[in-house]
């Protein structure tokens, strides 16, 4: 694990520690977190979007939203979100709408009533002559296997070594689908009647976290050098950790580093081991935990995330390897 004083969480806390509302912190993370993929790497053929550097106007807007979140709350509605991707999309739709750029969100394209061709995540105003198609993804991948020689010589194949916690996806597979299918949607005949103006640009905006075997990190072509990252380890390896304050993060709190005035579910190492052992008796789903610093004094202060990582069942490595090399 990295020095807690020199990681993404520490930087986020310095910049956004004044934000207290979870939804506003999540939006700040989406707008300000490094892009997962390096927009300058030629492998992506110029098809990776970026929001660009945070402006002082947006910083002030987020601070005001933290003080009065009524507009954001109204946009999200009373629905209890269970899908992290949908929650992130709704936050981004709110931002694009507030910027006056949103033309459409979640616009489905059908060849017939029961035949869906695809969906435009976002169509943004690109002037009188066109719209910009943004395919948006917030992803969490674990590095499985070894990347020899720092991986730069075989980056394309190595993207498949970043696999989803549930082994149903990989970074390589996701981006092939985005490039080969989703970003081509604007040229499909069924889309033409729906588009208010022609698609002049189609790019992928990708945010997320990458997780490396505990104690390791591999720089890789195509991946932004300063991306958000954490660790992963098997349950049997967890006892080697020195830290002793943890939270199991609910899925909707996976986006920004955790911060709260209190957390009744904080666990010490023994309690965490017991909770995870119970979990893995009935489920093989990895669990995202946060290592936290309890800065409260006499009940005041905050509980702040200093590091995060996925804890996986002890057979996860073998199952992931079997998926990669059937």
Structural key phrases:
single chain, 29% helix, alpha/beta, 326 residues
Task: Please give a quick description of this structure.
It comes from Massilia norwichensis. This is DUF1853 family protein. This protein has 326 residues and is α/β, with parallel strands linked by helices.
Overall description:
This protein has one domain. A hairpin with a 5-residue loop joins β2 and β3. The protein has ten helices and ten strands. The chain is globular. About 3% of the residues have low confidence. InterPro entries: DUF1853 (IPR015003). It holds the Pfam family DUF1853. This is DUF1853 family protein.
- The topology string of helices and strands comes to HHHHHEEEHEHHEEEEHEEH
Which spans of ≥5 residues are poorly predicted at pLDDT below 50? 148-156
How far apart the termini lie comes to 31 Å
Mean pLDDT: 90
Number of helices: 10
Number of domains: 1
Shape, per Cα inertia axes: globular
Largest sheet: 10 strands, mixed
Rg measurement, Å: 21 Å
Total beta strands: 10
Structural class: alpha/beta
Strand content: 25-35%
Helical amount = 25-40%
